[in-house]
Amino acid sequence: MAKRDYYEVLGVPREATEAEIKKAYRRLAMKHHPDRNQEDAEAGKKFKEAKEAYETLTDVDKRATYDRFGHDGLRAAAGGGGAGGFSAEGFGDIFGDVFGDIFGGGGRRGGRSQVFRGSDLGYELELELERAVSGDSVTIEVPTQAPCAECDGSGAKKGTEPVQCTTCGGVGQVRMQQGFFSIQQTCPACKGAGKVIQDPCGKCHGRGRVSKTKKLSVKVPPGVDSGDRIRLTGEGEAGRNNGPPGDLYVEIRVRPHKLFERSGADLSCEIPVSFATATLGGEVELPTLDGHVSLKIPAGTQSGKVFRLRGKGVSTVRDRHLGDLFAKVSVETPVNLTDEQESLLRQFDELLSTGGKRHNPRAGGWLDSVKRFFDRISQ
Prior knowledge:
The protein has 379 residues and is an alpha+beta fold. The chain folds into four domains: 6-86, Orthogonal Bundle (Helix Hairpins), CATH 1.10.287.110; 121-158 and 202-254, Sandwich (HSP40/DNAj peptide-binding domain), CATH 2.60.260; 261-332, HSP40/DNAj peptide-binding domain, CATH 2.60.260.20; 339-378, no CATH class. It contains nine helices and 15 strands. It has helices at 6-10, 18-32, 41-57, 60-77, 88-103, 129-134, 275-280, 339-354, 361-378; strands at residues 121-127, 136-147, 163-164, 173-178, 181-186, 195-196, 209-220, 229-232, 248-254, 261-263, 266-274, 282-288, 291-297, 306-309, 325-332. A hairpin with a 2-residue loop joins strand 12 and strand 13 (291-297). Helix 2 packs antiparallel against helix 3 (41-57). It is elongated and about 105 Å long. Residues 80-113 have low confidence and may be disordered.
C-alpha cells in the first residue's frame, strides 16, 4: 500500500512552518497514542504514521529531499531503508521535545533551576482634563514586592546559602514515567528553584522578597485620554529565584470636567443664552482650554443650535492636530418674574400672535401638522 503524503497525514499545507507542523503532530499524537486507544488497532498505525511524517518534515535535509523527490527520494537517501521506525525509546525523545512546553520540562536534555519573572502590576492614574491634554510628570506610589536587601533576594539567612535540593538533584524538575509518557514537572520540594533554604532570612522569612512602596515618576505625554496605558519596564514585582522583574502598566483615567466633554480630539460644551440674546442676537463669552473667546449669536438662534469652533479642541497622543470645540446653545427660560415682568411678557406674547407664523414658524408648522393628523384619522 502506497504511503500517504506526509503533509496530508498531518493536515498542514506544504508551506507550513515548523511550529505549525509541531502543533499538528501534537494534536494527532494525543489523539492516536496507543496508551489511550488500547482497543483500537488502527490507532497505533495512525500514531506511527504521524510520527514518521513529523520526524521527516522537522528535519531540514529530509524535508528538502521529500519536497523534491517524495518517498522514493527518502528511501534512496537512506539506502533503501524507511524514513523512520517506531520504538518506545524514540517516542520518549519526541514526546519530550514536543510536549515539554506543556508539562514544564525540557525533554531528555534535562532541566535546570527555574527562575520566574515577576508579576506585572497595574496602576490607575487619575488626571484632570487640562493636565491630560498638556502632559505632565507625575509622582506615584506603588505597593510592590522587591528583593530583600537583608539576604540579597536569596531567602537564606545572612552568612548562609541555599543548599541543593535532594529531591530533584538541583535541576528544579522531576520526571514521571508512565508507559510511553515521560513527563517533567516542577519539583514539589523546591518549587523549581533547585535549592532549598535550611536557615531562612528573618526579614523575608525565606521568600527572598519583601513588600515595599516605591515612588516612581511617570512622564505623561500630551493628549492622553481615558484607557491609554503607559508601560514602565521592569517596575513590576521582583522575580523569584533572581528572575527578571515584571512591568508596571499605568492606566489613565481622566476625571469628568465641569464645562467640557471630550471625544477624541474634540470638545463639546453647552452655553446658556438669554431669551433676548437668542432673539435679537449678540455676543457671549465662551471658555476654551486656552482662554475665553467671543462667540457671535445670530438673531433668531434656536435652542439646540450647535456652533463649531475649529482648532479649539485638543490633540491626542496619536495625532498632534487640534480638534474642534462644539458649543451647543441652550436658551434659558426666565424664572421668578415680577408682576410687572409677567404683564409685559403677556403683552409681548399677544403682539407676537398677531403676526402668525412669521414670528413663530416652528410652532406654526407644528400646529399645521397636528391639524392634518387629526383630519386624517377622523375621515
